[in-house]
Amino acid sequence: MDTVSKILDMIHVRSTVYFSKSVMAPWGMEVVEQPDICRFHLIMAGSTWIRLSDGSEEVELHAGDYVVVPHGKPHVLSSEPGLMANSTHNVPGSEALPVPKFEPRPAPEQSTQLLCGYFRISSFAPDLIPERLPGLLVVRAGESERPGYVSDVASLVQHELDTMGAASLVILNRLTDVLLFCALREWLNRSLAEGGALAALSDQRLQRALSAIHDSPERNWTIESLAQVAGQSRTAFAQGFRRAMASTPMGYVTQYRTLLARRMLTETSLALDDIANRTGYSDTNAFSRAFRRVIGTSPGAFRKSSRN
What we know:
Elements: H1 3-9, E1 11-23, E2 28-31, E3 38-45, E4 47-52, E5 58-62, E6 66-69, E7 75-78, E8 87-89, E9 101-102, E10 112-123, E11 137-139, H2 149-162, H3 168-194, H4 204-215, H5 223-230, H6 234-245, H7 249-267, H8 272-278, H9 284-295, H10 299-307
Parallel strand pairs: 1-9, 2-8
Antiparallel strand pairs: 1-10, 2-7, 3-6, 3-10, 4-5, 4-7, 6-11
């Protein structure tokens, strides 16, 4: 598996599409801050400007373009650059799922149609990706490394909006999952190629160590044994690993084991002893202590809440 695939495979995401609206110029809409989510906007027709409320970034988007606003930063969508908002938009908390509001597509002479929603990203190494994302992650329909895929997905989205029926909301949510991963793939490829903060991930020595952890999480890994796999000294390996992964080697091992445990607790009926053995812990007590340190609750409680 290539480096980008390995990184993306670490990320679990759940999309919620809740808002489709047609607007006529002049218009402006403020989207309030909500740090625990990533907002997204797909321009179905027309054009819009988007700017972060702190003024650090402002770009124009056209039909077929797609933008992700990481960390739920406050921002303004408007028909003209710098235009003040005349409405405010918020998302209810997780305890009250938003009721989707979809409007029919505008006629060609009308201005803009937006499809909006948000992602909740769950990653076992949160500092690796989300903390390094730009303020606005933009994918343009005509400038993608794979031309046409955004417009292809947008066409499927538009079809669902036009023919809303059974399971349409589920399909819309999954289609926007695809858009997020495509956007992340483009950003990762650029970052790795341009020597950015993630470029160290392309180091073959680091990749050997990561592959060893992923392939055999049950092994009794130490910094020394991982450094040996990488073919480096203990010090050089530890320093390079932290620089690339925003985590110590053993911290990463714990986080990866916890990710696997979460999946097994959610998706299987394996006993806790079995999960402990498969994730490198000598007994259930050691597994439970490590799991609670990372997740904040016991494995049993996590399994019960995930099934509710």
